[in-house]
Amino acid sequence: MADITPTIEEIVTRGDDGHIITWGPMTAGDVGLPIAMMGSARRTVQIVGTFSGMDRVLIEGSIDSQNYSPLTDNHGNRLEFKGAGLSSISDLTRLIRPRVSAGSPTGVLVSLLVRKEFR
Q1: What's the pLDDT tens digit per position in 26-35?
Q2: Has this prediction a pTM greater than 0.85?
Q3: Domain ranges across the chain
């Protein structure tokens, strides 16, 4: 079990501001250190890696920096991945982090694409 420090890459295309935040590789019990990107309301998460039966990766958020809850997609489904996948995030929270909650996936990378909303 380890705290995984994210890497942050800035993306600029045709004037759009965005970032890709990546945690990994992650394995059993790992928790990604949270990232704060309040100005980035549009968020999509992608999970890649090798999964088996009981493996679970949760995408969690917090407003108060103490209590974390699973985030949801645009249909109200919990962001709990049992394998590789891609999903939008509907909840706006101060902090976001991934957490391996069960199993022992190997080499899992969690990437978060965030885009700033322009007014």
Answers
A1: 988 999 999 9
A2: yes
A3: 3-115
